[in-house]
Write a structure and sequence with these properties.
It is built from 6 helices and 17 strands. With 243 residues, the protein is α+β, with helices and mostly antiparallel strands. The longest helix has 10 residues. The model has no long low-confidence stretch (mean pLDDT 89).
Length: 243
């Protein structure tokens, strides 16, 4: 950050939709704004919004978007590609005129739910990289009656053909005579990992939906609908992947 170059901090906050310039000056005066980890104690500070990390009340304020960051509630039967040689429906069918986007961690055709798409290649690569351990939450309808012992086994870890894997959290949501509904959170992005974990413990998946990626929640977004990431969601994800 600089006192001579860049854009005035209050203007950046206003452009980001945080507050009007006058209200932004009040936030600064009340020591609620940080730039690169330092509390701002003066008005008129100039910043580079593309490089400086700006926070208000501890929450990351991302720069104005030069890229697209989209949430899709992918329907079952849709493949996580922009085109398909076999003529199946793809995510491109739901994106309107948004252009070509990368999926951030694919969902197999039989799995529905939250899929992130972007044209920011660095962001997509970081989100998919296992070293950043972005948690993902699923709701699985599985065959049979799942017990607490089975849930503990998933948390302790099971060994698949490509190595051991464990769930961070599990919760039995419903148990009926012939099926159970389980919520599971894990960091692994391996192919079909949730299905393979439940297969390993003797409860094949009947239906699977991803409901969250990190701080991003599917919420009441309808199947096949899209929305942009909110400023808060994007800021939190940028922190998670250290961008």
């Amino acid at each position: 950050m600089s006192t001579e170059e860049g854009i005035r901090l209050q203007k950046v906050l206003a452009q980001a939709g945080v507050a009007s310039r006058r209200a932004a000056e009040d936030l600064i005066a009340r020591r609620r704004v940080e730039v690169n980890g330092e509390v701002v104690r003066e008005q008129g500070l100039r910043v580079d919004p593309a490089r400086d990390v700006i926070r208000v009340d501890g929450k990351r304020i991302p720069p104005q978007r030069q890229h697209q960051y989209v949430v899709l509630n992918k329907p079952r039967g849709v493949v996580s590609t922009m085109d398909d040689p076999h003529g199946r429906r793809t995510v491109a069918d739901f994106l309107g005129g948004r252009g070509r986007l990368f999926h951030v961690g694919r969902l197999d055709a039989d799995t529905e739910g939250l899929l992130l798409l972007t044209n920011d290649g660095d962001f997509a690569q970081r989100m998919a990289h296992p070293s950043f351990e972005v948690p993902k939450t699923y709701v699985a309808e599985v065959a049979g009656q799942v017990t607490e012992a089975t849930l503990k086994r998933l948390r302790d870890g099971v060994t698949l053909e490509d190595g051991p894997v464990s769930a961070d959290r599990t919760k039995l949501m419903q148990r009926l005579e012939d099926r159970s509904l389980v919520r599971v959170t894990l960091h692994s992005g391996r192919n079909r990992v949730v299905r393979r974990m439940f297969e390993e413990v003797g409860h094949p998946v009947r239906k699977l939906s991803r409901i969250a990626i990190g701080p991003v929640r599917l919420g009441d977004l309808k199947s096949g609908a899209v929305r942009d990431l909110t400023r808060e969601e994007l800021g939190a994800l940028l922190d998670l992947v250290k961008l």
